[in-house]
Amino acid sequence: MNKKEFAAALATATGLSQVKANEVVSAIFDADSGKGIIAGELDAGNKVTIPGFGTFSSKARAARTGTNPATGAKIQIAAKNYVTFKPGKTLRDRVAS
Question: Which residues are 57's β-sheet partners?
Fold first, then answer.
């Protein structure tokens, strides 16, 4: 399911217009524009917990030394932040069945 299909499903489920549903989806999920609620909270170092669905959070990975598999040379891998998602129990149970 892509963003357009997600917005169409939201419009059908809630009775919103297609345009309004697309605005809602964009307000929650957009990462490019800087307006997305989830991305904004993660940028600020906060968690986003949706009961029954899951938790989005960000973690920091320290700098480390790696090996280039083609040459065997040691390389420095920079520190970075990354996004994690931990599904909630309800979602895990639903997918597992």
Answer: 84
